[in-house]
Prior knowledge:
By secondary structure, this protein is an alpha+beta fold. 38% of the residues lie in helices and 11% in strands. The chain has helices at residues 16-24, 55-60, 67-74, 80-89, 95-113, 139-156, 183-187, 195-202, 206-218, 273-286, and strands spanning 6-8, 11-13, 28-32, 35-40, 43-48, 122-125, 167-169, 222-224. The strands form three sheets. Strands 5-4-3-6 form a four-stranded antiparallel beta sheet. A two-stranded antiparallel sheet has the order 1-2.
Amino acid sequence: MTVETLTHGTTTTVSPLLRRLADEGATGTLSRDRGRLHLVAGRIVHAEAPDSPPLDVLLTTGSTLPAAALATARAGNEDTGAFVRALVAAGLVGAGTLELCHLGALHDAAYFALAPSGGPARFRYGDAHPLAVAHPVDAGAVERECRRRRAFLDRLHPCDVLDHAPLRRLAPGAALAVSARRTPVLALVDGHRTAPEIARALGRPAYHTLVDLRRLAAAGLVGPVRAPRRTGRPRHAAAPGTPPPPGTPPGVRAAPRPQFGAGLLPRVQDPDIALLRRLRDALEAAL
């Protein structure tokens, strides 16, 4: 997977708009195709992404907190922020634990929010997010961590399809031992779940789950579900029941008729998507 980059002085930035907002000291919400970043005075205080489990899931799924106490804290608190504050008020989660978990969730969601995308980034000026982390994170540090994480995944097993496609188990050539940490991940690979769905079910950060799945894929235990092959007749082939042209010998099938203009038009190459994204980000940074 290639990362959208633009040189900003001596620093390479994943999102030129984010760097500009950081330099400006802006407060508000930066929205991208795969997530949102919340800024206060140009620093990131919270991040959200559909592929990343929210903070309440990370705090409670698979935790040792009493189920009855969790139900009491959840009652009437559909909002994630209200639920988390109720956990802290009830003494179920300490302030230090909350901050560490929140920082982990921020980097996890930022990894997806800052992933290469096809749509423009948008920023809405406003107030701080109610779940703002106590110690905001520098935007440049978040970008560097995103690049490090992406490069690490590619070193483990360079297959981006694993990150979003339904996953299936593969039969390795020999019996392989699976670590205690990756055993629950492998158990949820059923041909239907994706990596983000497995992370949410386990209550683990999505990026950590991607690391486990890439390692399992490198060992030959996991792979993406392949799209079904098309079973229809080949394009330009004669429809069933079409009579052969006059004079065709018995038992000889008629050759398909060539389409008008076939072979006359040059084959159009796919556009350079990475180049288009860099041009788009450069235009955004210049606005």
